[in-house]
């Protein structure tokens, strides 16, 4: 019992020392980047066509633009016949994913001449790779279902002359 009284007394003395209570540790979390780094208004916009159908396309021909693409674009911000054309310096096997992309998209991979190699549908925020069916130089993203709705299939050829001027 004597040991218990000493232990309690000792605890009260220790607890009472130091005056004020130490502040809780400050935990800082990195703030995620929310929103676009390259505003869509900063992209040039050109009309591209395929099988007589027009797309008013944001042109992503700089690395920062290609990297960001349509990330953070919200439902309703991309018009029915709007999209983005990605222009790469040379042809290569490509693969896109949907990190930070909030709307479902179609992507068409195009070869050097503008011919569609393949079309894939991509789900929002899906990180699984969506590869091209061969060496591509361009990619065109639109709202999901645009290619099917307009009867556009692999093998059709885009007129990209406005982009390449």
Strand content: 35-45%
SSE pattern: HEEHEEEEHEH
Helical content stands at 10-25%
Tally of individual helices: 4
Envelope shape: globular
Question: End-to-end distance, in Å?
Answer: 94 Å
Average pLDDT, to the nearest integer? 85
Based on secondary structure, the structural category is alpha+beta
Give the quaternary arrangement of the chains: single chain
- Spatial extent as radius of gyration: 27 Å
Detail the poorly predicted runs: 1-23, 25-32
**Strands, total number:** 7
Q: Main sheet, how many strands, which sense, barrel?
A: 7 strands, mixed
Strand order of the largest sheet: 5-4-6-3-2-1-7
Account of the 3D structure:
There is one protein chain. The protein has four helices and seven strands. The chain has 165 residues and is α+β, with helices and mostly antiparallel strands. A seven-stranded mixed β-sheet has the order 5-4-6-3-2-1-7. β4 and β5 form a beta hairpin. The chain starts with a helix and ends with a helix. Mean pLDDT is 85; it is low at 1-23 and 25-32.
Fold blueprint:
Layout (H helix, E strand, L loop, with lengths): L1 H15 L27 E7 L2 E8 L2 H6 L13 E15 L8 E6 L5 E7 L7 E14 L2 H4 L8 E2 L1 H4 L1
Parallel strand pairs: 2-3
Antiparallel strand pairs: 1-2, 1-7, 3-6, 4-5, 4-6
Quick overview:
The protein contains 4 helices and 7 strands; from the N terminus they run αββαββββαβα. It has helices at 2-16, 63-68, 146-149, 161-164; strands at 44-50, 53-60, 82-96, 105-110, 116-122, 130-143, 158-159. It has a 7-stranded mixed beta sheet with strand order 5-4-6-3-2-1-7.
């Amino acid at each position: 019992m004597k040991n218990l009284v000493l232990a309690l007394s000792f605890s009260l003395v220790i607890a009472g020392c130091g005056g004020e209570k130490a502040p809780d540790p400050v935990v800082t979390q990195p703030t995620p980047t929310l929103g676009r780094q390259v505003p869509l208004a900063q992209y040039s916009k050109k009309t591209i066509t395929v099988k007589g159908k027009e797309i008013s396309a944001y042109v992503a021909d700089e690395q920062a633009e290609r990297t960001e693409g349509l990330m953070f674009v919200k439902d309703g911000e991309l018009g029915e016949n709007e999209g983005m054309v990605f222009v790469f310096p040379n042809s290569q096997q490509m693969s896109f994913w949907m990190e930070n992309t909030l709307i479902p998209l179609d992507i068409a991979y195009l070869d050097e001449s503008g011919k569609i190699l393949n079309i894939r549908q991509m789900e929002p925020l899906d990180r699984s790779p969506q590869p091209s069916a061969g060496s591509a130089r361009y990619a065109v993203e639109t709202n999901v279902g645009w290619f099917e709705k307009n009867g556009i299939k692999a093998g059709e050829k885009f007129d990209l002359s406005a982009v390449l001027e």
